Amino acid sequence: MTNKVWAVVPSAGIGSRMQADRPKQYLLLNNKPVIFHTLQRLVSHPLIEGVVVALSANDPYWPSLDLPPEWPIHTTLGGEERAVSVSNALQLLQTLTERNPWVLVHDAARPCIRHSDIDNLINQLANDPVGGILGVPLSETVKRVSADNTIESTVDRSGLWRASTPQMFRLAALTEAMTQASKANMAITDEASAMEFMGVFPKMVAGHADNIKITLPQDLALAALFMNQQENGGVE
Predict the structure, then answer these.
(1) Which residues of the chain have pLDDT under 50?
(2) What is the DSSP letter of 39?
(3) What is the pLDDT of residue 171?
(4) What is the pTM of this model?
């Protein structure tokens, strides 16, 4: 695959479940904000041409990140919903390239993404007509519960995966999918669901389980452990 790809990072969320004084992407992880690590992993990948980050209005934390000036990062206004942030980033990206590149949409709060997982995603999907996402097959027993947390049944986990990011689709196709899903007032939880709305079927590509999304307070310690293991083990 000779053409480089772009990355989009929606980063306008507030991460209320962290119960912190700032959005989770700005909490410190190994003495740097979470999003700093995430962006470092993306911009250091040789096939990623640039990154578009969608920020909340008047974000007070972004200016203090002190990002290296050579990092190819562009910013745009995000929204309260992830879908709005991604759509705005895609619109800006259309002004930055005349091509129809592959776009990797990646969560700001997934700082442990490995280069090898990005490589695997790009290599497996380079000639795919639709695109796909990273994920991990479910290994735990899955239960369906009622509103009062009473177990109703055990769910067959065969064929069930935990979706993660990056999610990789062509710029034009993803832009159209996000637009049409928005017009239909469809709740978009990830980019693959917008593509599914268009009647196409993205691929699932196996990634490593250490590509966690920081959501709860204890996730910070786990992410630090994973990052230290990766660095000490020479993992890329």
Answers:
(1) 1
(2) H
(3) 98
(4) 0.94
Torsion sign, CA atoms 37, 235, 131, 102 = positive
- CATH of segment(s) 5-135+162-232: 3.90.550.10
What would the pLDDT profile of 81-115 be if each residue is shown by its tens digit? 999 999 999 999 999 998 999 999 999 999 999 99
Domain boundaries, the chain: 5-135+162-232
